[in-house]
Design a protein that fits this description.
The complex is a heterodimer. Chain A is of the alpha+beta class. Chain A contains 15 helices and ten strands. Chain A has four domains: 228 residues, no CATH class; 124 residues, no CATH class; 93 residues, no CATH class; 99 residues. In chain B, a hairpin with a 2-residue loop joins strand 9 and strand 10. Classes of the chains: A alpha+beta, B alpha/beta.
């Protein structure tokens, strides 16, 4: 028998990489086919014959499609990572793969990059279809710069999310455990912070947490949110979007840094991962503790909410249920992690710790909320202020005075509701008393208030001053513009306070000039008005231009009302 | 050469391998025997780079195995439960190994296809345990490793295949200077094959020596006396076991044959004869010495 030895013509790492790619090809093609059905498939179905004539593919639709493609790509990468690293979950398979002549880094690289390539293939194929539709001559799509930048952002996102998802596969010992860890670590922190926010908002009047900030707690939500807004941000002026919504160079740098950290962590953890942990729920000791804490807190809270009928009454009964449910959830997750009820005592301890941690966090949150409830920033530190979404850069003192008055009312009043017969209809023009301070140091403080009688009668002076500023009327700019259509005016109340009564409603169609004239008349009469407007009934109308707004005109504003009645009469005659 | 220096491996608080020291020369067939859970498979996994040692080190030709692809190219580990890709055939597995192991010999594989009576185009998952073992051996031998690690290699093989395997291993050693390490309970099989043997118990190696030296150090003596000599007369012999049946003494003694026989003969026996113990008997005697025997386990 000959013993001819095959000379080293092969490249084992490259061959292993090719083998892995080949093995994952069927799944890649299958998921890509599904992805193409959604995008651009559904887009084509939606456009239908309009593709031949004219189809508007606006930035929102483009962003949504891009988001769907990225989700599909990441889902495929996750599936392929589980396929390629599934050997870590089996002792038999682990023996074979771990004995192969590769370093840990080579194994990680070949299997990890293969999975990423699968996702990249899907993303490129689907995005190419989207870009092709966008480039059709009959499609009013987004610019080429938007197409390119969105793809580059998606590429970066895919790299980051692939590395992030890889961490869960490396740290887990089974498919089910990977899914539990992934869901717990991605969802739980945001849910916990949202719960604390919610409790704080319930306890303190006026606090307005920007729940969008929660996206910073989960990379998937963060990237998805940014991606969906990106085409819109690129196609429209920058100042329309908030800081959270914008994708700046800092966003990109942050993602690169986060992605790099994930890759480094994956390499380090994979290197030290013990092969003998195959079959255990998690291959590192910190994982079960973290999962247990997160699941106990969230599970305990949800179950306590169910048991108390979601009354949002955070009394002793609720907290009792929370503690018990947290312990039970800890025992349950411990049973899953330990493959049986072997370490019940430890699970009970974890449950108690979780409950204690959450209690501490809520108490701290309540203290912070109480402090924030009464906090009024100093005028000299404020860059600009928005009241009911209108900027009042020159009237910061007025806004601060209004804020102080509201706080005094809150401290003084004994009930939560307002009395309908004491609600001045003209206040509807302000709509709400939401305050947003943009500080000189760049931070933002937000508060949400609404008119609450009887003590807010003391604020009528400030409210009237607000309605008499020039800034107040900037809110009507968008509804007095007509880019795509004419401006429609509907009256929905005639000389009485209820805005729900539509009896005797009238209509008119205005040009931009006429709409601006209407607002100018209203402003003139408001700036000449006195405190008696708070005792008057109002004449309510809605104006639909590029945006929609409402106007509540006191009955003493004869010029404004006269102008409107003339327009309604002329329009009625035209229609007949 | 393979060397274990104070090698330790722990699983939690349990020491599966506890400061093991041993040397395995190139070109030998090294039998690793031991009780259940003694650490045989763990030792093989450490040697193949599947596990990382918690203490000491394990070196092959002076280099550490773990994370060393050049060295692992020379090692092929066949576990007691071999793993194959789902729905793969032997041919597909061979194609895979050919791309990974630079020493894979396609001609040898083709030859082995004729030796082992199994189809290379049928799915391995559908084969019996013995056939799967044959498939695994076929692939292992085709990679032409310098170090072949076999865990329970004979398990599931019929007697004919066992003989075939022995021949193939010997051939591999002779032609390629292969070193084979076999972990097994089947001491009768190892006895015919191995030239070195180590006995491992609770993570520790009780002895590691050539089979010849092991056998030469253990002797079963049957001696009949008119009057049984008092125990004190035999105290300078390293008696592992001694059974009295009337005036007949059956003893297992460790030491030089000549010295032992001289001593026995000095006690004026009616007759005394030496019987070569089998490896299985040596195993049993050594286990008895450390308390792992039938009487202790059943009591």
């Amino acid at each position: 028998m000959t013993s001819k030895i095959c000379l080293a013509k092969n490249h084992p790492v490259l061959n292993f990489f090719k083998f892995t790619l080949k093995k994952q090809t069927p799944l890649t093609l299958l998921v890509t086919a599904f992805s193409l059905l959604f995008c651009p498939g559904m887009l084509l179905q939606d456009a239908n014959d309009d593709l031949i004539r004219e189809y508007n593919l606006d930035a929102w639709a483009f962003g949504t499609c891009s988001f769907v493609i990225l989700v599909a790509a990441v889902a495929l990468v996750c599936m392929l990572l589980l396929l390629n690293f599934g050997y870590l979950f089996s002792k038999k398979a682990g023996d074979m793969y771990s004995a192969l002549p590769f370093t840990r880094n080579q194994m990680l690289l070949t299997r990890g990059v293969s999975a990423f390539i699968g996702g990249l293939f899907l993303m490129t194929a689907s995005y190419f279809g989207l870009a092709m539709i966008n480039s059709l001559p009959t499609v009013n799509g987004v610019s080429v710069a938007t197409v390119i930048n969105t793809f580059l952002f998606m590429l970066l996102s895919l790299v980051v999310l692939s590395a992030f998802c890889l961490l869960f596969v490396i740290c887990s010992g089974g498919y089910f455990d990977t899914i539990i860890a992934f869901c717990a670590i991605n969802a739980a922190p945001a849910l916990i912070v949202a719960l604390i926010f919610g409790i704080a908002e319930e306890s303190a009047t006026g606090l307005a947490f920007d729940y969008y900030q929660l996206i910073y707690l989960t990379p998937i939500a963060f990237i998805s949110f940014k991606l969906m807004k990106l085409p819109y941000a690129m196609e429209r002026p920058q100042n329309i979007l908030s800081i959270t919504e914008k994708t700046s160079i800092f966003t990109v740098i942050g993602l690169i840094v986060f992605g790099a950290l994930c890759v480094i962590a994956a390499v380090k953890l994979f290197k030290v991962r013990k092969s003998e942990t195959a079959g255990d729920a998690y291959s590192f000791k910190f994982m079960p503790i973290v999962i247990s804490l997160l699941v106990s807190i969230v599970g305990g809270f949800i179950m306590a909410g169910i048991l108390t009928g979601f009354s949002l009454n955070f009394n002793m009964v609720f907290w009792f249920f929370f503690v018990v449910c947290a312990i039970l959830c800890s025992i349950a997750i411990g049973a899953i992690t330990n493959r049986g009820f072997k370490k019940v005592k430890r699970s009970v301890v974890n449950g108690v710790i979780s409950a204690a941690l959450m209690t501490v966090m809520v108490i701290v949150g309540l203290y912070v909320a109480d402090y924030a409830e009464h906090r009024i920033p100093k005028a000299e530190n404020i860059e600009t202020v928005y009241v009911a979404d209108t900027e009042y850069k020159e009237h910061i003192d007025l806004a601060v005075k209004l804020h102080k008055g509201i706080i005094d009312c809150l401290d003084a009043e004994e009930n939560d509701g307002y009395y309908e017969d004491e609600f001045p209809p003209v206040v509807n023009n302000v709509n709400n008393f939401n305050l947003e301070y943009v500080m000189k140091n760049g931070s933002v403080i937000k508060r949400h208030y609404w008119y609450r009688s009887p003590d807010m009668k003391n604020l009528h002076d400030e409210i009237l001053q607000l309605m008499q500023t020039e800034n107040f009327y900037t809110r009507y700019k968008a509804c007095t513009k007509a880019t795509y259509k004419l401006i429609e005016v509907h009256s929905h109340s005639t000389k009485f306070g209820s805005i729900e009564d539509r009896e005797g409603s009238q209509n008119a169609v205005l040009t931009e000039q006429k709409a601006e004239q209407l607002i100018a008349l209203f402003k003139k009469e408001m700036q000449a008005a006195d405190m008696s407007v708070f005792n008057e009934e109002v004449y309510g109308i809605s104006i639909s231009g590029d945006e929609w707004c409402e106007l509540y005109i006191p009955v003493s504003f004869t010029e404004t009302i006269g102008f409107l009645e003339k327009e309604f009469t002329e329009y009625a005659a035209k229609v007949q | 050469m393979i060397e274990f220096i104070n090698l330790t491996k722990k699983f939690g608080d349990f020491s599966a391998i506890d400061e093991v020291n041993a040397k395995i020369k190139d070109g030998s067939i090294y039998g690793l025997v031991g009780s259940n859970g003694s650490g045989k498979s763990t030792l093989l996994r450490l040697l193949s780079g599947v596990y990382y040692p918690d203490g000491g080190n394990i070196s092959v030709d002076g280099f550490a195995v773990f994370n060393n692809p050049e060295l692992k190219q020379q090692i092929f580990y066949l576990p007691d439960a071999p793993y194959f890709f789902k729905n793969a055939t032997i041919k597909e597995m061979a194609d895979f190994y050919e791309g990974i192991y630079e020493t894979f010999d396609r001609a040898r594989f083709d030859h082995l296809k004729d030796v082992f009576p199994i189809s290379t185009t049928n799915k391995i998952d559908n084969m019996s345990k013995g056939m799967q073992r044959q498939a695994a051996l076929m692939l292992a031998l085709s990679t032409n490793p310098k170090y072949l690690l076999l865990d329970e290699a004979f398990d599931g093989l019929d007697p004919v295949m066992r003989s075939v395997l022995k021949e193939l291993l010997i051939d591999g050693i002779e032609t390629n200077s292969m070193t084979v390490i076999i972990a097994s309970h089947n001491l009768r099989e190892l006895e015919d094959l191995c030239d070195h043997v180590a006995l491992i118990h609770k993570g520790k190696i009780l002895f590691s020596d050539s089979l010849e030296d092991v056998r030469s150090n253990f002797h079963k003596i049957q001696a009949a006396f008119k009057v049984l000599p008092p125990e004190i007369k035999l105290h300078d012999l390293d008696i592992i076991k001694c059974d009295k049946v009337g005036s007949l003494l059956q003893m297992v003694i460790r030491g030089e044959e000549k010295e032992i026989m001289d001593k026995i003969n000095s006690l004026d026996p009616i007759f005394a004869e030496i019987i070569e113990p089998t490896l299985e008997e040596i195993f049993m005697y050594e286990m008895e010495a450390v308390g792992y025997d039938i009487k202790n386990l059943l009591s």
